[in-house]
C-alpha cells in the first residue's frame, strides 16, 4: 500500500545538496506526470527555467522524448518511463498530475484517470507533497449553464463514448477531494479548457491541430456537424502560468483555467484560414456523439484568487504554433509533438 505510512524513509524531509532556485526561494523537487506530452513539456520548461528539479514520469502513450530532448543534459532534469497505473515511490515536494490520454482518439482505451490519480495521491500522502490534478472543462459535459462557473455540477452522459474521459476526470476530482478531506493531502484542482500551441500532437483529432495541419497540407478543414458549436481556446503558456499560480497559491479550487474568447468552429476555421492560407477550404463531416454544443469558462474565481488571466488571444497564439507544425510536417514528422 503506497498510500500508507508518513514517517521514516518516506517522511517529508529537506533534500541535501539542492541548488538554490533564486534569492529567497529554495529549489523544489517536482514530479510532472505526463511531462513528455504537449502541456506537460511546456510546464517542465517553466519549472526548470525557474531553478527547480523536475522528474518526469511518462509512458509515452501520446507524449514523446523529443518534447524534452533539450533538457537531457540538464542535471536538474530526470525522465522515467513508467505507467502511472502502477505505483511509484519518489521523494518530492510537489506533484503535477497530467498523465492521461487526453484526446478522443486515445482516451477510450485507458483507466489512467482513476488508477493513475489514486497512485499519485498515494505518493503525495506518503511523502507530504502538494498534489495538483489537471481536470478538464469536460466535467461540465454538454453544459446547461453558460458560461460555466466552478459551482456548476455538469451535464454528463455516464455511459457514452466520451464518458471514460469525462467521468474519469470527475472521479479523479472526487478522489482528490476525498484525500484532501480524509488524509490531509494538500491538493489543487485545475479545470482546463481547450488549449493549443506548439508540440500538440499532429494527429490526435483535436480541432485546432486538425485545422492547422490540414491547411498546411493543402487539405480542406473538416468541420464536424454544422460548425456552430462553440469552444474557447487558450494558448499553452497562459495555461502553464495558471497551473503554477494555482500550485503556489493557497486555494484548493477547482479553478477554471481557460480563455473566455468563444468561437464557433466555423469562426475558428476562418481564423486559421486568415493566419495560414487565404485559399483554404472547409468540408463538413458528421459530428461525434455527445459533442458539447457550447463551452466558455467563467474565470472570475481564478482572476480574483490566483490573480491570473490569459494574455494571448487566438489571433496572437495561432501563428506561434503554425511554425512548429509547418516544420514538423515538412520534416515528415507526421506523428506526435516536437
Ligand atoms: P498529451 O496527450 O499531450 O499529454 C499526456 C501525457 O500523459 C503524454 O505524454 C502521455 O504519454 C502521458 N500518459 C498517458 N497515460 C499515461 C500513463 N498511464 N502513465 C504515464 N504517462 C501517461 O495531452 P495534454 O493536452 O498535454 O494534456 C495534459 C493534461 O491536461 C491531461 O490530463 C488532460 O486531460 C488535461 N487537459 C488538456 C486539455 C487540452 O486542451 N490540451 C484540456 C483539458 C484538460
Ligand atoms: N471538431 C471539428 N473538426 C475536427 C475536430 C473537431 O469540427 O476536425 C469539433 C468537434 O466536433 C468539437 C470541437 O471541434 O465540437 C472541439 O473538439 P476537440 O476534440 O478539439 O475538443 P473537445 O470536444 O474535447 O472540446
Automatic annotation (TrEMBL):
<dbReference type="GO" id="GO:0033320">
    <property type="term" value="P:UDP-D-xylose biosynthetic process"/>
</dbReference>
<keyword id="KW-0812">Transmembrane</keyword>
<keyword id="KW-0210">Decarboxylase</keyword>
<comment type="function">
    <text>Catalyzes the NAD-dependent decarboxylation of UDP-glucuronic acid to UDP-xylose. Necessary for the biosynthesis of the core tetrasaccharide in glycosaminoglycan biosynthesis.</text>
</comment>
<comment type="pathway">
    <text>Nucleotide-sugar biosynthesis; UDP-alpha-D-xylose biosynthesis; UDP-alpha-D-xylose from UDP-alpha-D-glucuronate: step 1/1.</text>
</comment>
<keyword id="KW-0472">Membrane</keyword>
<feature type="domain" description="NAD(P)-binding">
    <location>
        <begin position="32"/>
        <end position="319"/>
    </location>
</feature>
<dbReference type="GO" id="GO:0042732">
    <property type="term" value="P:D-xylose metabolic process"/>
</dbReference>
<keyword id="KW-0456">Lyase</keyword>
<keyword id="KW-1133">Transmembrane helix</keyword>
<dbReference type="GO" id="GO:0048040">
    <property type="term" value="F:UDP-glucuronate decarboxylase activity"/>
</dbReference>
<dbReference type="GO" id="GO:0032580">
    <property type="term" value="C:Golgi cisterna membrane"/>
</dbReference>
<keyword id="KW-0520">NAD</keyword>
<dbReference type="GO" id="GO:0070403">
    <property type="term" value="F:NAD+ binding"/>
</dbReference>
<comment type="similarity">
    <text>Belongs to the NAD(P)-dependent epimerase/dehydratase family. UDP-glucuronic acid decarboxylase subfamily.</text>
</comment>
<protein>
    <recommendedName>
        <fullName>UDP-glucuronate decarboxylase</fullName>
        <ecNumber>4.1.1.35</ecNumber>
    </recommendedName>
</protein>
<keyword id="KW-0333">Golgi apparatus</keyword>
